[in-house]
């Protein structure tokens, strides 16, 4: 995939990396900071996430990704005895559930550890009380071939059983302590399947959803199971599994027909809706796999706003944000976030972009 868009480049100070959930910092989930960026008005407002309903209006629609986070990181051992961590990124498209796309990391999860086709890793046991050994066979590079591997589970039991018995949430080096799976779940998540938390929705509480509905702002679900994040700069997102239900598609279309705004909670929601969008902005119900990459050249059709976190320098997600906000305004937003000390990553602060 090629794009004429250039992802925003900047330096992220370590001090602006959120190293723990806000609850551990003495705050509520919805007390994180929220930058409201109105691209049409060329205006930036600084607020708390709990004030989100103030920036939306009756007739708007908020779309949530109800995918649940899996404990997708498992300790394993290479043939030479080297410990590694396996991140089970996603099911492999068009293959059965014993085939997975995986990423290898160092034992502490901090750095990539390249895998090799034909390599066999020993996995922990027992699984559901069955002491039979389990191995993970790395079959071939996946997609770009630089980081992800297509792998097959060898032994009794399923990947889901393995994760249930021995998995932990995927954690990167900037998170200094292990947190339970509940810290990586959105409160409204219902459908297990994401390797990493669709983190844009983390600050949304049930109280906040109730307030949105009370104000006449509709809320609708869809599902997109996230893979692992893309820490390598300019790396495009990998294919992901999604479902846009009929009721949600109908609400999107009614909202647009009525002049309301469709606000996506997370880049995952944008990706799913834009996968099923027509050029006029209407959408159809659908389920499957999407490899859509959104940038300013492609643009967005169905989405008028986006709630998201703060993304890594030169990350491909920034292409999508530039498609919504315009590249000059997005650059201004990121400079403002750096100047005002917003926190990055899954436990950090939030960004509402309205176009």
Summarize the structure.
It contains 6 helices and 17 strands. It is an alpha/beta fold and 355 residues long. The protein has a 9-stranded mixed β-sheet with strand order 2-1-17-16-14-3-12-13-15. A 6-stranded antiparallel β-sheet has the order 5-6-7-10-9-8, covered by helices on one side. A two-stranded parallel sheet has the order 4-11.
Give a topology summary:
Elements: E1 33-38, E2 43-48, E3 61-65, E4 67-69, E5 73-77, E6 83-91, E7 99-106, E8 120-123, E9 134-141, E10 148-154, H1 159-166, E11 191-194, H2 206-214, E12 218-225, E13 240-244, H3 246-257, E14 262-265, H4 267-275, E15 286-290, E16 305-308, H5 317-325, H6 327-339, E17 350-354
Parallel strand pairs: 1-17, 3-12, 3-14, 4-11, 14-16
Antiparallel strand pairs: 1-2, 5-6, 6-7, 7-10, 8-9, 9-10, 12-13, 13-15, 16-17
